[in-house]
Predict the 3D structure of the following.
Amino acid sequence: MYKYIFFILIVGIIGGFGFYKYRQHETRLKMLDEISQYSEDVKFQADLGKVLVLYYSLDGHTKDIAERIAKISNGDVLPIQVLDTYEKPLVYWKSKKYLDKKLYPSMDRLPSLDGYHTIFVGGPVWWGTMALPLYGLLDNLSFGGRRVVPFSTQASNYGNFFVDFAARVKNANLLESENFNNWPSDYDTQLNRKIIIWLNKLSYVDEPEESEPEQ
Ligand SMILES: Cc1cc2nc3c(=O)[nH]c(=O)nc-3n(C[C@H](O)[C@H](O)[C@H](O)COP(=O)(O)O)c2cc1C
């Protein structure tokens, strides 16, 4: 009997490990396939007006994308600051609990959007949706009719991030979003190309309006 249980256990462990390795391999192949789409050089040629990039980042991946967007578009970059803290490993448990109970953080201070035409808003995917600080921001900020562009970073799957974003964002002219799986740093050039191709699609067709959008 014990021999039988031991055998089942070993087969289970080997099978589980094999499946995990297979999924890892599959994810890597998908990543390389996506990266291969960005083999040709591209130039940034979008007119986005004055750009602000708002982001929340726990581990630095979203910060990196936010800074690249700001650098390419000659915009400003600002972290989203909320009145709550998130630290690993507790964040896994805390964020799950708070998301399930819809307990979203209050804002430390709201960013001023004065003078900006295009506002990028980015953050990591947590449990298939937006990280809690993005809920805090969207619940407290009205975009005054400005162009708003969401972006996410994630390990492999952005889930409902953009659907949840669109459902909560207030008074925004929502433009095409983009999502970023975490690529190794060897693919820096391809990552910049991916961002430039996306930004070029967001260009004003006409000049930015002279008058300021309402606050
Ligand atoms: C609490 C938590 C939940 C996460 N949930 C997901 C998820 O559902 N799907 C996914 O692909 N990645 C998930 N991740 C991975 C992050 O989205 C990913 O590493 C992201 O790029 C981190 O961004 P940051 O470095 O700016 O914090 C999760 C990470 C954390 C900390």
Summary: The mean pLDDT is 93.
